[in-house]
Protein 1
Amino acid sequence: MSLSLLAQEPLEPIKRIRIGKNREFIVNGKPFFPIMSWAQPSKNYAMLSELGINTHVGGADPVVAKSVGNYAVSGFRRNLEDNGYILGWIFSDEPDLATGKGTEAKPRQTPERVTERCKEIKDADPKRLIFMTLTSSFMKEQSSYTDDVRKKLYPQYIKNADVVGYDHYPIYGWGTPAHLDWVGRGVKQLVELAGDKPVYAWIESSKGSKWMPYDKQPDVLPIHTRNEVWQAIINGATAYGYFTHAWQPDTVTFRPTPEMQAEMKRLNNQVTRLAPAILADPAKL
């Protein structure tokens, strides 16, 4: 049997975690590549683990994550018991999300509020990583903010996070397959902004967004998702995750087709197997 098709081994309890010189996660002295789900009910964890996903983010349940050998990235809770499977805390989703555009654009949370809240979390739990997902408005190709505001705003958000990511869905969200390469462009720009911090991208995996009429939405195919994952990795991402929700024709938290699920499993197991090489020092040749 191909190594890429073997079931993943359960993850071990986290005894120590640090960020390496290549912006990689190092858990218990070994490189670790988070492959994440977003805001999934815990009843889905076993199925997601079978697809090669190893980390659950957004309201994640560390107890159920541990039971399937995965890690959790939950919203910060002071009374949450550490069971060895909490990889970090996820900050409120998309604090930079703008209302209005251009000179009228205002973020959901000001940088000052984000700084204040992150300090509260760090004071309460200084050893745990803070993850923060931004919109794609830091990108020069597509921003709700003027250039001067964009350049001023994002370094302030990023300085508060230990791990920073973003979401951009060219097909699912915008119906523009021609902009598939914007996923990699965004990762590259975010890496430049984040410096020595790990960067991740959320990857589209289905159709059914609420931003376009369903009958006008192009299909998100396995080849698109595979391309986006490798774009992200090639441009410097040391983690990635899947956005699997759909609102049309009905609302569900997991909409990938059987064909997409097969590709996710193949791809995730491949990346996990290759993680020590992907996260190693850059090749000299």
Protein 2
Amino acid sequence: DHPALSVFADRQPQSAQDALIFAAIAGTFPGLAPDVLFPLGSPESLLAILCLRLAPGADRESELELLRLLSGSLTLSLENAYLVEDSKKQARTTRELEIARQIQLSFLPASFPQSEDFQIAAYYLPARQVGGDFYDVIPLPDGRLALVIADVSDKGVPAALFMALSRSYVRVYSHPKGRAFQMSSLESVLQAVNDSLADGNPSSMFVTLFYGLLDPQ
């Protein structure tokens, strides 16, 4: 978006020493002092600027014509280099998301309490590699089970992070081992979870949550 680049609107070599682009390059790279600036790219995208200082006595037109012939190959090489780098970044991102998916799945219970009177089962398939949905079955100190099904707003990584936070709060307040207080009711558990999630939540993300109590007796 630099205004100096407007002189390359026609993608033609520049040799006017008073052009804005020369002043911009001189300010960024003192001592470079090019004679000719040659754009590399397509009509839609400027990939690079080739800065040349011609040898004394060089045939200017011949040199520029040679560069025009080489510019296609140079541009293709640059585009390929960018594509390779983008592919590497994409591969790293894919690996990181796969690790995040495995971590997120480890948050979900792999087995559930069963009896002759009830059965509990769950199936989880996020829309993306990671997501904001979660479920839980939490054994409580009095023998009851807390059943949780939740859906965080949005999808992807932000939802996955908020999911991990929400799940942690639900578990901590449902079964506060080693804490100085005990939650007195289902409502007090959800109120504590809500207060904790609302505190320091500049993105105003939220979770829609079902929380039920199952008494096996």
